[in-house]
From TrEMBL:
<feature type="domain" description="Aminoacyl-transfer RNA synthetases class-II family profile">
    <location>
        <begin position="211"/>
        <end position="473"/>
    </location>
</feature>
<keyword id="KW-0479">Metal-binding</keyword>
<keyword id="KW-0067">ATP-binding</keyword>
<dbReference type="Pfam" id="PF18554">
    <property type="entry name" value="PheRS_DBD2"/>
</dbReference>
<dbReference type="InterPro" id="IPR004529">
    <property type="entry name" value="Phe-tRNA-synth_IIc_asu"/>
</dbReference>
<dbReference type="InterPro" id="IPR040586">
    <property type="entry name" value="PheRS_DBD2"/>
</dbReference>
<dbReference type="InterPro" id="IPR040725">
    <property type="entry name" value="PheRS_DBD3"/>
</dbReference>
<dbReference type="Pfam" id="PF01409">
    <property type="entry name" value="tRNA-synt_2d"/>
</dbReference>
<protein>
    <recommendedName>
        <fullName>phenylalanine--tRNA ligase</fullName>
        <ecNumber>6.1.1.20</ecNumber>
    </recommendedName>
</protein>
<keyword id="KW-0460">Magnesium</keyword>
<keyword id="KW-0963">Cytoplasm</keyword>
<comment type="similarity">
    <text>Belongs to the class-II aminoacyl-tRNA synthetase family. Phe-tRNA synthetase alpha subunit type 2 subfamily.</text>
</comment>
<keyword id="KW-0648">Protein biosynthesis</keyword>
<dbReference type="Pfam" id="PF18553">
    <property type="entry name" value="PheRS_DBD3"/>
</dbReference>
<dbReference type="InterPro" id="IPR040724">
    <property type="entry name" value="PheRS_DBD1"/>
</dbReference>
<dbReference type="Pfam" id="PF18552">
    <property type="entry name" value="PheRS_DBD1"/>
</dbReference>
<dbReference type="InterPro" id="IPR006195">
    <property type="entry name" value="aa-tRNA-synth_II"/>
</dbReference>
Length: 479
């Protein structure tokens, strides 16, 4: 090896990687040096092997720890070396075990002297005489994790055809100024490395909605909720509105707010006894309510729509719960798409994702609802909450939920909640003492609060790659 430039480095403890870095740096400058990488293998003692080379093997130390009169096995096993040493010494027949001894099993020496070949072999390898140890013994020492085979990589460095002790920085870019002045003729350019790997392009990322949706689902599951089936985007007006005690003349049922279907335009299958009870509570009242006092129309209830909220699914699940022989408390949740006939702007979409939670049990109150909501939003990382009284056709009392938006520095509505009305629950057949607390929110709103995004346009412009990541309406907005 030609140590013309490097012989002064090694004896002074220069780090191996620094030397390798210097060699590669000089190689990148052209033909200043020629460096051939070579590798060789050698044997090295492990930390345990080094200990044995100095103090002896475990089996030898076990042998020498036994006095002439023998030693109780229980006393021997207190030694740190006993577990391995006892087994190996017994295998070598250096010691014997007397199980019938008075006071318990006792260990005696079985031979007058022993030869610690393990220590001797390790000492030979430590002195660089590994060739003196046969391969079988090396393999055995390796199995005992006393010996390791390591690969040593070295460089064979010689002067190159352009060797020089003065290094000039090579140019990496040909600029217009160099071409205009002709100075490029006097400059030396760094050669292209066509074998170098390129920078990996940025790949897709999880959409913010997908990330927060996963968080919501995990939070619900941690709180003991069961996910409701939400695979029916098409609902009848009966389940979407009437079952929720929402009157047929309500503005939300107008074509300006709801998408109605042309084909099939009407639903045909309903639980007729339940439908009659819903009709009666709307038109005549009942269950302590005077109802809305209007002529309820089944043709209006049969109209098919794109569901405007996942509360239609909650109504189906609560009705199914009411058909059980004995009532059992439940906690349901859903996260899925809903549709509103909205004009698209910075804060409105024609479709979005609704999150809904429902708890049914005896004696639930508004206080229970507020406690569940605080726990729910705290798990999401939204701690600043306010509650405001509100009106919903199917909940009483009702309240809106607000959270403080750190980006906008103001309170933003994130959800709606309340206790389902008896006019909705009792026609289903649920027991009179059962209360149902529920809340709903748009997935997009807490996402914007969590990421500090001011509006939906900004969410579209979020640096996260939105295309083909998540089947969301936001992904398909052009502006």
């Amino acid at each position: 090896m030609d140590w013309t430039a490097w012989s002064w480095l090694w004896p002074w403890g220069v780090d191996h990687q620094q030397v390798v870095g210097a060699v590669k740096s000089l190689q990148s400058l052209g033909e200043i040096i020629e460096a051939e990488q070579r590798s060789s293998k050698k044997w090295e003692l492990s930390s345990e092997g080094q200990e044995i080379a100095q103090e002896g093997s475990q089996e030898a130390r076990v042998y020498y720890s036994i006095p002439k009169g023998g030693l109780a096995q229980s006393e021997l096993m207190k030694l740190t070396i006993a577990k391995i040493g006892f087994s190996k010494a017994m295998s070598n027949r250096w010691i014997r075990l007397d199980k019938s001894a008075e006071g318990g099993p006792r260990i005696h020496r079985a031979v007058d002297s022993v030869e610690d070949t393990v220590k001797e072999k390790l000492q030979l390898i430590e002195k660089g005489k590994a060739d003196s140890v046969n391969e079988k013994d090396k393999s055995e020492l390796r199995k005992r994790k006393l010996l390791n085979e390591v690969t040593v990589k070295t460089y064979w460095v010689t002067k190159g055809s352009e060797f020089s002790t003065n290094i000039t920085k090579q140019e990496t870019d040909l600029t217009p100024e160099m071409i205009a002045s002709g100075s490029w003729n006097d400059k030396k350019f760094k050669a292209y490395n066509f074998n170098a790997l390129g920078v990996m392009p940025e790949c897709g990322h999880l959409h913010p909605l997908m990330k927060v949706r996963t968080q919501f689902r995990q939070i619900f599951l941690e709180m003991g909720f069961t996910e409701m089936p939400t695979n029916n985007f098409i609902e009848s007006s009966f389940w979407n509105f009437d079952a929720l005690f929402q009157p047929q003349q309500h503005p939300a049922r107008d074509q300006h707010d709801t998408f109605f279907l042309q084909d099939p335009a009407m639903a045909s299958e309903f639980p007729m006894d339940y439908l009659e009870r819903v009709k009666k509570v709307h038109s005549e009242g009942g269950y302590g309510s005077q109802g809305y006092k209007y002529d309820w129309s089944i043709s209006e209830a049969r109209k098919n729509i794109l569901r405007t909220h996942t509360t239609a699914v909650s109504a189906r699940m609560l009705y199914k719960l009411a058909q059980q022989e004995a009532f059992t408390p439940v906690k349901y949740f859903s996260i899925d798409r809903v549709f509103r006939n909205e004009t698209l702007d910075a804060t409105h979409l024609a479709e979005f994702h609704q999150i809904e939670g429902v708890v049914a049990d005896y004696g639930l109150t508004l206080g229970d609802l507020m406690g569940v909501l605080k726990e729910f939003f705290n798990k999401l990382g939204i701690a600043k909450l306010r509650f405001k009284p509100a009106y919903n056709p199917y909940t009483e009392p009702s309240m809106e939920v607000f959270s403080y938006h750190e980006g906008l520095k103001k309170w933003v509505e994130v959800g709606n909640s309340g206790v389902f009305r008896p006019e909705m629950l009792l026609p289903m057949g649920l027991p009179e003492g059962v209360s149902v607390i529920a809340w709903g929110l748009s997935l997009e709103r807490p996402t914007m609060i969590k990421y500090g995004i001011n509006n939906i346009r900004e969410l579209v412009g979020h640096k996260v790659n939105l295309q083909m990541v998540y089947d969301s309406p936001i992904c398909r907005l052009d502006s």
